[in-house]
Amino acid sequence: MLKEDTVEESKIHSTKKSLWNKSYIYLMLVSLITNMGFNMVYVIISKYALRISDSLSIAGIIAGMFSISALVVRPLAGVTVDRVNKKQLCILANILIGISLVGYSLSRNVPMLFFFRVLHGASFGLGSTVNIALVTQYIPKDRMGEGLAYYGLGQVVAQVVSPSLGVYIEGRYGFSLLFLMIALLSFTGAGLLTRLDYTKDKGLGPIEKGQRPRLSLNSLIAKEVIVYAMVGGIFSFSNGIVSSFLILLGEDRNIANVSLFFSLGAIVLFVLRLFVGRLVDKQGLSLIVNIALILTAGSMVLIGIAPSLLILLLASVLKSMGQGTGQIALQTESIKRVDPARVGVATSTFYIGADIGQGFGPMVGGRISDSFGYGTLFFVCACLILATMLLFNIYQRKSSVSYANKS
């Protein structure tokens, strides 16, 4: 048995010498599949819920329950990922996502649709957390930023392709076939995951050691990365505001073709992903994040004053450059700051910041824009980003000495 374990460990370590190993590529494909399913459902779920409930308010609740259930499950997902077999957990998450999509197609009343929407959100929250924790096992440590950047390409491609594809399939073939097709993709993803070369981390988790697991705040939240999660949350906060109010700002100012903002941003983000990871691995975190925050704040100011589409497109480029570099750098550093046994908790903590920012952005933005207008909304967002930059730099100065000693 010991010999078999040694062979397996040798296998996994030899795999990790190269970034483009089989398991890493499989996980990239699973990420693409998962995010394509999410984006295809995201654009049509309110319409589907309205058909079942005949109520806009109920349709909105059903649509929003996905994010709420994903947010609630994050802390538990993080600690679970660090304590059990990551490969099996990832397979389970994809199977549950597939089941929830089959459930959508079978739903004929609000309670049933509500249940499967919650299941989908919880499964997605679990899956996105374990996927990151798992993929880091196949990325060489000195290429972590590059590996995570390439890994995120699936998410970018899904954002560009999937919404239009989902609307097209639903319009031509109906909701049920769309949901079943996405479910088949999820089950295919689960099948790909069975092909991973995987060895459990030896002695890293209480369950693997045979000990009784203890839940504590430290096991649910990685305090080492809370500040990075907050900074990442500010990026998501601004993203939520832009997604929710840019079209309305365009209508208010009679700017046509505002949707090009999102298309151009996605293209810039895709190109950035091809090389920004190497930059993250070579340059210091503080430099990259400070530049990213300045670029993002600048994009918010440009949106706030934009009289034309040209200015909005310039803002789109700055926003994608800022968020594309900043979030990769922060997520990479979050993983590096913790022991391998706590990568899952670090990942879930980082995603909690993103979930909160994305969720509260539209809520806060609605209040501000309703009272003071869209221009003020984006100026306030820029000020929050700059205030966050100040907080980040204070934290970096205070933590640099202790982190250097730890290293």
Q: Which keywords apply here?
A:
single chain; Growth Hormone, Chain: A; 407 residues; disordered N terminus; mainly alpha; 17 helices; globular; 2 domains
Question: What would you give as the CATH superfamily of the largest domain?
Answer: MFS general substrate transporter like domains
Please tell me what the overall shape is.
globular
Strand content: under 5%
Task: Quickly count the domains.
Answer: 2
Q: What's the average pLDDT? A: 83
**SS summary, helix count:** 17
| Main sheet attributes: strand count, strand direction, barrel closure | none
Report on this model:
By secondary structure, the protein is an all-alpha fold. It has two domains: 12-197, Growth Hormone, Chain: A; 219-400, MFS general substrate transporter like domains (Growth Hormone, Chain: A). Helix content is 83%, strand content 0%. It has 17 helices and no strands. It has helices spanning 2-16, 22-42, 45-53, 56-81, 86-106, 110-135, 144-151, 153-173, 175-193, 206-209, 217-220, 226-252, 260-282, 285-305, 309-336, 343-372, 374-406. Helix 3 crosses helix 4 (56-81), helix 5 packs antiparallel against helix 6 and helix 7 crosses helix 15 (309-336).
SSE inventory with pairings:
Blueprint: H1 2-16, H2 22-42, H3 45-53, H4 56-81, H5 86-106, H6 110-135, H7 144-151, H8 153-173, H9 175-193, H10 206-209, H11 217-220, H12 226-252, H13 260-282, H14 285-305, H15 309-336, H16 343-372, H17 374-406
Helix pairs in contact: 2-6, 2-8, 2-9, 3-4, 4-6, 4-16, 5-6, 5-9, 6-16, 7-13, 7-15, 8-9, 8-13, 12-15, 12-16, 12-17, 13-15, 14-15, 14-17, 15-16, 16-17
